[in-house]
Amino acid sequence: MLMIKVDLITSMRCDKCRRPAVLFQRYSGLHLCREHFFADFEAKAKRTIRENRWVSRGDTIAVAFSGGKDSGALLFFLHSLLSRRKDVSLVAITVDEGIPGYRDPSRAGARARELDIPHMTVSFREAYGITVDEIVERKGGALSCTYCGVLRRHLLNAAARDAGATKLAFGFNLDDEAQTVLMNVLRGDTARLLRGTHPVPGMVPRIKPFLSIPEREVALYSFLRCGTVDTGRCPYSQNAMRAEVRQMLNAYAWNHPSARFALVNLGRELAELGAGRTGELHVCSRCGEPCGTTCRSCGILDEVSHGA
Ligand code: SF4
Ligand code: ZN
């Protein structure tokens, strides 16, 4: 919220039309008014989709829709881009991880209905018999996001496939992606850095239209277009390595505004280099989902079901 206030409180004028600016882009040196900000934002997201050939005739796009600012902006953007096309459809999927006070699937459902987009909710409780709160109770908070992230991706993929989706869209922004690359570097995780993006049987291909847009601009777009601001934060988010990396990268990028773009480019180039060297793919004999040599979701469920 504070960040949005900083963006809006400005006496500067748009560099394109001299109307009052709502945003200063440090990396481009431009002040933009509301209309030119929308045009710039939407052009970037469309270019990312076009360059990656992420939308094709006949697609059903499942949107991972928590109801927060990033996925709210994504649902709005994809709806305005695609709702007039007869050959592409959207479905919104909300995951209820079982963290009371954080997610409200009914609000997400109401928002999807406003846009006339079919909506489904899938829950950790129903799919796995355990919630993130219960996992933290048993195992402590240190790995909450690792467990939650693996199980959520697994559930989203299964739900998207069941809904007949051909693409699974995430509202990840430039900051998220840069943090992911830096986390993999800091962990020395070569396998993840070199993991290509080619099709994997059983995995619905993922698309990230906001990949090249900074988080503060996604937040501003969400606020101005949909009135959405993130008021709640997951109580476990401070436990994650990501929180430390975010802080570090924010501090560094203040003086080096191109740092996040450089990291995302590095991640993309390494993925291209690694595209030829995928390991063998398996299907988990227990849950039937695609996986590496061992299914991480089933491994986690085994681990958490045995208590602390
Ligand atoms: Fe799950 Fe971590 Fe996100 Fe909370 S912050 S919803 S525990 S991944
Ligand atoms: Zn303008």
Quickly describe the structure.
This protein is an alpha/beta fold. The chain is 50% helix and 11% strand.
Give the SSE map:
Elements: H1 2-8, E1 23-25, E2 30-32, H2 34-52, E3 60-64, H3 69-82, E4 89-96, H4 105-114, E5 119-123, H5 124-128, H6 132-139, H7 144-162, E6 167-169, H8 174-187, H9 190-193, E7 206-207, H10 215-226, H11 241-255, H12 259-274, E8 282-283, E9 290-291, H13 296-305
Parallel strand pairs: 3-4, 3-6, 4-5, 6-7
Antiparallel strand pairs: 1-2, 8-9
Helix pairs in contact: 2-10, 3-10, 8-11, 8-12
Percent range for β-strand residues = 5-15%
CATH homologous superfamily label: HUPs
Q: Can you summarize the main beta sheet?
A: 5 strands, parallel
In DSSP terms, counting alpha (H) and pi (I) runs of 4 or more, how many helices? 13
Q: Strand-and-helix sequence, N→C?
A: HEEHEHEHEHHHEHHEHHHEEH
> What is bound: which ligands?
iron/sulfur cluster, zinc ion
| Structural class by secondary-structure content | alpha/beta
Number of strands: 9
User: What do we call the CATH topology?
Assistant: Rossmann fold
Could you say what the CATH architecture is?
3-Layer(aba) Sandwich
Coarse shape: globular
Helix content: 40-55%
End-to-end distance: 37 Å
> How many domains would you count in the coordinates?
1
- Whole-number radius of gyration? 20 Å
Mean pLDDT reading? 89
Instruction: Please state how the strands of the largest beta sheet are arranged side by side.
Output: 5-4-3-6-7
Poorly predicted ranges (pLDDT <50, ≥5 residues)?
1-7
> What CATH first level would be assigned?
Alpha Beta
